[in-house]
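cron nightly-structures :: item 1 of 1
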Amino acid sequence: MTGYLEVLTDPSYAGQAVVMTYPLIGNYGITPDMESGRPWPDGYIVRELSRMPSNFREEGTIQDFLTKYDIPGIAGIDTRALTKILREKGTMNGMITTNNNYNIEEIIPRLKAYTTGNVVDKVTCSEKRVLKGNGKRVALLDLGAKNNIAQSLNKRGCEVTIYPAHTTAEEILATNPDGIMLSNGPGDPKECKEIIAEIKKLYDSDTPIFAICLGHQLMALATGADTHKMKYGHRGGNHPVKDLETGRVYISSQNHGYVVDTDTLDPVIAKPAFVNVNDGTNEGLSYVGKNIFTVQFHPEACPGPQDSAYLFDRFISMM
């Protein structure tokens, strides 16, 4: 099984415990194939953990990797049975512990009251950095960006300047970027009130904007729409989404627990562009009279399908 390392290092998992349904995890250890510089989940749950990985690029084990960053994990769990519970009952809070003396009646209220809060501040970069290129200049607002977003733009020739999440719109626009990218990220979008206010200012500019995942939700909130938490989110690399303009269906990689309420969209401002074939939820928006489009799924999927990677080319063509 491959791809577990990219999942571990995806900042969108900050504040969550991740359950892996494949029965054996860690067979090729830790390699340089990361989406950020460290693991982000608050807990890691597997059926069986490989303690003797075999790969010529291997640099350590998952256990060592999690231990280094004080992330608790548990093995020997029937993860598929656990997944069935989550599928039927919905996403829920939980706890991994080695203490057998907890009073369950005291713990349950604390678990129910737990929230992740604003985890974007935890995962965003601390300072601006630049990926050099000879083409269009793109400002990437790092809300918990996966490495492959910047790389997908950079390999198309773009010079990408990555900004911390709380960078003001004025600072970004002062550099006259050709385009602005709003990245993926973790948590409840409504926790990002200050960022939403700055995104509204970016919307009011004439700069082309492309937003992914959390960025998609924040743009919707900035323009007056609403979001809500799903019973259980979309996770994995095989979600079909339909382009409402062309009727074509693409297989997408997804990782989100919140969704935009299309009933709250102002049709003068935005219209649905993509829809999830499985449950009919919104997967993308197109903004009326603006060079702005946003998607809930991951066109930069790594690992995952590359069906929608063309969206980066669409973004560049708008600049």
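cron nightly-structures :: done
The chain has ten helices and 15 strands.
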